[in-house]
Specification:
By secondary structure, this protein is of the alpha/beta class. The chain contains six helices and seven strands.
Length: about 190
Amino acid sequence: MLFDPEVHARGEYRNLIDHYHYWRNEAILADLDRKRNGFISVCVNIGYDFNIATIIRNSNAFSAGKVVIYGRKRYDKRGTVGTHNYTHVINKQSFTEFRETLKGYHVVGIDNVPNAKPIEDYEWPKKPIAMVFGQEQIGIPEEVLAICDDVVYIRQYGSVRSLNVGTASGIAMYDFCRKTGGNVNVQ
C-alpha cells in the first residue's frame, strides 16, 4: 500500500516533492529504486562526520544508487532532512571491504590534486560510476586515490583553495546527471 493514513491524518510534514505526499516511507524507497541514476556516492569518514549528511541529501536529490561511507559510520542524520529514509546508506570500516564494494564501478575521485582533470571537460564513462568524496581539509586519502580510475576537480575562481565537500558533491552529481542524462541504472 502506497498511502500512509497516519501521515494523512496529522498532515504531511516530511520534506518531499508533492508526488510522494502521504506515501509510506517504504513505498517511496521502492519507487526511487526503480529510477536510480548510474552512480553511487562514496564518503570518506576517517576522522569525523562533517558534511556526510549533505552528501546523503545530495545523493537523494540526484538519485544515486546508494551511499557508501568508508570509515566511521556515525553522522548527524538531522542534516539529511529525512532523505536518509529514502537513500541506501551502507558503511565499510575496513579498506578491504570498502575496495570490494567498489568492484564493477568506474571510480572517480573528486579532489583538487595534481593531475586531476577539470570537471567541465570530463566525459563520464557510460558505465556505473562511484564518485568518491574526501573530508574537509584532508581530501581523499592516498590509499583511496590509488584505486580511483580518474580524478576530477572543480575549478575555483576566488582565493579559497577548495570548496566545502558537501557543495562539491552537489556540483559533481549535477554535472554527471546533466552530461549523461543519468547513465545506466545502478542498485
